[in-house]
Every structure is written in C-alpha cells, then in structure tokens.
Amino acid sequence: MLIGLIADSHDHVRHIQKAVKIFKERNVELVLHAGDFCSPFTIPPFEGLTLKGVFGNNDGDHYLILQKFSEIGATHLGSFGEVTADQKTIALYHGTDMPITEALEQAGKYDVVVSGHTHEKKVEFVGNTLAVNPGTAHGFDGESSIALLDTDTMDVAFIELN
C-alpha cells in the first residue's frame, strides 16, 4: 500500500495542490497529514483523497477545520491518531512536544510514527519502529517536501515540491 505523508503546509495552497496532484498520480490509497494546515481554506484541495489528519500547534480555527474535513469526507483525529493501514499500526502526531514524539517512537507499539513540526525530513528506525517526518510542505524559502511510504517494503521516498 502506498501512503502519502504531508505536514506543515502552513496555508501554502500552491504546494498543497502540487502534493495532491502527486498523490493522485501515484495512486496513493491514504494521505496522512501531521498537522499545521493553519487555515480551513487549505482543506478542500484534498477532496477526492482518503485523508486523515491531526492538529498542529499553528492550526487556527479548529471548528472550521473540522467542518472542512467533514465537507470533503476526510477524517480528523484530533491532536493524536492511531491509524491501521495494510496491517501496520501508525501513530500520527504533529510533534509539538519532542519527548512525546520520542516516546511514541521508542514505545515499540507502532510500526510507523509520522510526525512533523520540526520542518526537517527524517526517516529512521527506532528499534522496529519506522519514524518519519516528511518535512515541510510549505518550504519557508527552503526545501518543500512530502513523502511516500510503501507499507510492503517500509521504504520512504521524499519528493520536493519547489
């Protein structure tokens, strides 16, 4: 199964649209967003994808973000989510509190931990747990990236958006 990973899009609609196009072209079956959409207007571009997401520390109007998720048939998991996909258990957390992120990675409970917040790409095994940060979709005058996770091989490929 191919899963699209995105985080820290921070209102950058053009990069979100690029990411969505890539996810659709690659036939991803699920998209996980690790938070910091920021504004509700960034949710509709994901329509047509199976999207699950969590809040980040910069997400503004939680009520309207939840409403936009509902309007496109997406699932919002609150501040933390557990997702099962292709018999893999995935933790989805923005990463605001680094000790929590590290505890999730070290717990041995999850096959994959997806986080964001640092805006830095990361892929490493912590014991048997694959820890992934797709980087920032926004870019902030630097590299803008998303990632693809193949649950069959547990390989992660980063894709630049700028």
TrEMBL record:
<keyword id="KW-0378">Hydrolase</keyword>
<dbReference type="InterPro" id="IPR041802">
    <property type="entry name" value="MPP_YfcE"/>
</dbReference>
<comment type="similarity">
    <text>Belongs to the metallophosphoesterase superfamily. YfcE family.</text>
</comment>
<keyword id="KW-0479">Metal-binding</keyword>
<dbReference type="InterPro" id="IPR020935">
    <property type="entry name" value="PdiEstase_YfcE_CS"/>
</dbReference>
<dbReference type="GO" id="GO:0046872">
    <property type="term" value="F:metal ion binding"/>
</dbReference>
<protein>
    <recommendedName>
        <fullName>Phosphoesterase</fullName>
        <ecNumber>3.1.4.-</ecNumber>
    </recommendedName>
</protein>
<dbReference type="InterPro" id="IPR053193">
    <property type="entry name" value="MetalloPDE_YfcE-like"/>
</dbReference>
<feature type="domain" description="Calcineurin-like phosphoesterase">
    <location>
        <begin position="1"/>
        <end position="153"/>
    </location>
</feature>
<dbReference type="Pfam" id="PF12850">
    <property type="entry name" value="Metallophos_2"/>
</dbReference>
<dbReference type="InterPro" id="IPR024654">
    <property type="entry name" value="Calcineurin-like_PHP_lpxH"/>
</dbReference>
<dbReference type="InterPro" id="IPR000979">
    <property type="entry name" value="Phosphodiesterase_MJ0936/Vps29"/>
</dbReference>
<dbReference type="GO" id="GO:0016787">
    <property type="term" value="F:hydrolase activity"/>
</dbReference>
<dbReference type="InterPro" id="IPR029052">
    <property type="entry name" value="Metallo-depent_PP-like"/>
</dbReference>
